[in-house]
Design goal:
single chain, 452 residues, mainly alpha, four-stranded parallel beta sheet, three-stranded parallel beta sheet, 22 helices, globular, binds iron/sulfur cluster
Length: 452
C-alpha cells in the first residue's frame, strides 16, 4: 500500500490515553519515540521551531551511522527536555498528524515521556514543582510585607545568583513581580447591562482571570473589564478559581492536572450551562480548557461544555464585531505596535483576532510577528534552558524591534505586545534595552484606544 505524502485534511487529535497503565510503560514510549524520530529524520521540516528538533538531528548526524540507529536511546531524554509543549509542530507544520495513517503526535509523545519522567523523579523535581505551583505561590507571595520582600529579593543580584545555585532559576531571567492588590479582590462589579446575545456571540461573560492576572498583573484584568463595560457586556468573575493546570501539564504531572480539573471543570461547566462566554486573558490557560483537558477527559460532559464556552478575549470581541455588537468609537490611535502572536494562541486555530481588532483602531500600524519567543511558561526561566530560550527568541526580538512604519522603515515601535504577557516581558528582555517600558498587553492597548 502506498501512503500519501502529507495529509490534506485538518489535523485531528486522539484523546490522551493517560489512564491506561501502558501509557507509563517506558519501553513502549521509547518505541513510539523511535518510530516518530525516524519519520522526523527524513522530513526535518521543524528544524527551526524549537530546541527539540535540532537536538534530535544533531544526535543523528553525529552518530556512527548517520541514522537513528546510531543514537543511544538514553539520549532521547535530551529531545524530551527541549520540548515545552507549544504544539506548533503538530498544529501548523506536520503533514503526518491524524488523520494521516502515520498518526504522528510529537507533542503528546513528549508529554507521555515527561509523565514517565515525572513519576520517576529527577534532580530538578523540587524546583520544577515549586515553579508550577502558580496559585499557591501567588497566595503566599501576595501577603502584604511578604510581597515587598519577594519583589525586592528578585531584584538583588547576589540573591538571584544564590537562587540560581539553590533553586535552578536562571539569575538573569525576567521574573514577574507579585502584588497585594490581587485582581479578584479589587475587580469592579459589573453594571446591570441587559444581556444581548448575538447570532455568534453570547451576551454575558464569565472572566477566568488566570493566576498570572490575579497575582501578578491585575491591570490586564481591569482593562478587560473596562472594555466589557464600555461595550455594555455584563460580566462576573469566576470566584476562588483554581489554576488551569497548564504548568503541571508541562511537567508531565498529570495527577495534579486531574486534581485541579476536579475543581475547575464543574465550576466552569455550571457557568457555561448558564449561557456565559468564559473569557481567559492568558492563551495557555485558554488552550488548557479548549484542548488539553477535553483530550484528557474525552467522556466528561463538563470538560466538553467548558471547551464549547471558552474564548480567547479577542476571538470573543471579533464575534461581537461580526454581530455588530462591538463599539468602534475609538478615541485615540495606538501608533506603531509590534505584536507577537503567542504559540498557545496560534494553535487554537482561531486566526489572528488580536491583530484584526488592533487594526480596527485608526492611526495604528501593526507589525505582526508569528514565531516562538522561546519563553514557554516556566521553561525559559530555568537555569539549563534560559540561554536556549533567548536563542530561540532571537528572530522575534529582531522583528519586534524593526517596525516597518517606524522611523521610515525598520525603527522601534511605540508598543510591544503579545497575547502572552510573560512572552511580552521575555521579548522586552531579549530586545536588550530597545523594548524597555514598551510592553503593553493587547487588552490594555484596546482599553487605551477606547480612551478608557
Ligand atoms: S511542541 Fe513545540 S517545543 Fe515541543 S517539539 Fe513541537 S514545536 Fe518543539
Ligand atoms: S513533527 Fe512532522 S513536520 Fe516536524 S519534523 Fe517531524 S515529521 Fe516533519
Amino acid at each position: 500500500m502506498t501512503v500519501r505524502e502529507g495529509s490534506l485534511e485538518a489535523p485531528t487529535r486522539h484523546p490522551l490515553d493517560w489512564l491506561n497503565p501502558a501509557f507509563y510503560d517506558e519501553k513502549e514510549c521509547f518505541d513510539e519515540m523511535e518510530r516518530i524520530f525516524d519519520i522526523c529524520h527524513s522530513c526535518r521540516r521543524c528544524v527551526s521551531l524549537c530546541g527539540s528538533f535540532p537536538t534530535l538531528f544533531n544526535l543523528i548526524d553525529d552518530g556512527q551511522t548517520g541514522e537513528l540507529d546510531g543514537v543511544d536511546r538514553k539520549r532521547y531524554w535530551d529531545v524530551v527536555d527541549q520540548c515545552y509543549l507549544c504544539d506548533v509542530c503538530y498544529m501548523t507544520k506536520c503533514p503526518y498528524v491524524p488523520p494521516h495513517p502515520w498518526n504522528l503526535d510529537f507533542p503528546h509523545t513528549m508529554l507521555r515521556a515527561k509523565a514517565i519522567q515525572f513519576k520517576k523523579g529527577t534532580p530538578t523535581t523540587f524546583r520544577d514543582v515549586t515553579l508550577s505551583n502558580t496559585s499557591a505561590n501567588g497566595k503566599l507571595a501576595t501577603i502584604p510585607v511578604v510581597v515587598q520582600a519577594v519583589n525586592a529579593i528578585a531584584k538583588i543580584k547576589p540573591a538571584r545568583a544564590l537562587g540560581e545555585k539553590l533553586l535552578g532559576v536562571h539569575k538573569d531571567a525576567w521574573l514577574p513581580e507579585y502584588t497585594s492588590a490581587v485582581f479578584e479582590k479589587h475587580a469592579k462589579r459589573s453594571s446591570d447591562h441587559p444581556v444581548q446575545n448575538g447570532a455568534r456571540s453570547l451576551g454575558k461573560v464569565a472572566i477566568y482571570s488566570t493566576c498570572y492576572v490575579n497575582w501578578n498583573e491585575p491591570g490586564i484584568g481591569h482593562d478587560l473589564i473596562k472594555v466589557l463595560e464600555h461595550n455594555e457586556i455584563p460580566y462576573i468573575l469566576v470566584e476562588k478559581q483554581a489554576c488551569c493546570g497548564m504548568p503541571k501539564l508541562e511537567l508531565g504531572d498529570l495527577d495534579s492536572v486531574a486534581a485541579l480539573a476536579k475543581k475547575t471543570l464543574p465550576q466552569l461547566a455550571a457557568l457555561a450551562r448558564q449561557g456565559y462566554a468564559i473569557v481567559t486573558p492568558i492563551p495557555s490557560c485558554t488552550l488548557m480548557f479548549k484542548q488539553e483537558l477535553p483530550l484528557m477527559f474525552p467522556n466528561d460532559a463538563d470538560a466538553q461544555a467548558v471547551k464549547a464556552a471558552m474564548f480567547d478575549p479577542f476571538e470573543y470581541f471579533q464575534l461581537r464585531h461580526k454581530d455588530a455588537l462591538l463599539k468602534t468609537d475609538f478615541k485615540q490611535g495606538l501608533g506603531n505596535v509590534s505584536y507577537h502572536v503567542a504559540c498557545h494562541l496560534r494553535v487554537q486555530n482561531v486566526g489572528q483576532k488580536t491583530r484584526e481588532t488592533l487594526e480596527m483602531v485608526p492611526n495604528t500600524a501593526v507589525n505582526t510577528v508569528e514565531r516562538c519567543s522561546g519563553h514557554a511558561g516556566t521553561w525559559g526561566v530555568k537555569k539549563e534552558f534560559h540561554e536556549t530560550a533567548l536563542k530561540i527568541g532571537g528572530p522575534v526580538f529582531r522583528q519586534m524591534a524593526e517596525h516597518p512604519q517606524a522611523a521610515e522603515g525598520g525603527g522601534l515601535p511605540d508598543f510591544i505586545a503579545s497575547d502572552c504577557q510573560l512572552a511580552g516581558h521575555h521579548i522586552e528582555q531579549g530586545m536588550a534595552g530597545k523594548g524597555a517600558g514598551k510592553v503593553a498587553h493587547p487588552l490594555s492597548l484596546l482599553a487605551r484606544a477606547y480612551g478608557l
